Amino acid sequence: MKTVLDGIQVAGSLVGTWQDLKEAFDLATDGDIKPIVSTCKLEEVNKMKKGEIKGRKVVKF
Predict the structure, then answer these.
(1) 3-class SS at 42?
(2) Engineering a disulfide at 32: which of 1, 9, 27, 47 sits with its beta carbon 3.0 to 4.6 angstroms away?
(3) Is the overall model pTM greater than 0.85, yes or no?
């Protein structure tokens, strides 16, 4: 219900087990995960390629 009400999106992965997934969801619902997500300009993509960023970036065109 929280994913719908708060507009949370879940991305899948081919790595890990069902237990890993359950533990990850438990951490997220307990508030123990603080994701680092921000936007960047297309010109900053080279920083991502070099691994010079923390967290995840959303490229703004």
Answers:
(1) helix
(2) 27
(3) no
- The answer to whether the CB of 56 falls within 8 A of the CB of 35 is yes
| 19-36 residue pLDDT tens | 988 898 898 888 877 777
Spatial contact of 61 and 42, defined as CB atoms under 8 Å apart: yes
Residue environment code for 12-46, b if the CB has 16+ CB neighbours within 10 A, otherwise e: eeeeeeeeeeeeeeeeeeeeeeeeeeeeeeeeeee
**What backbone torsions phi and psi does residue 18 show, to the nearest 5 degrees?**
-60, -35
Alpha helix segments (H runs only) across the chain: 2-5, 18-30, 45-49
CB–CB of 23/14 below 8 Å? no
Measured distance CA(19)–CA(38) in Å, rounded: 29
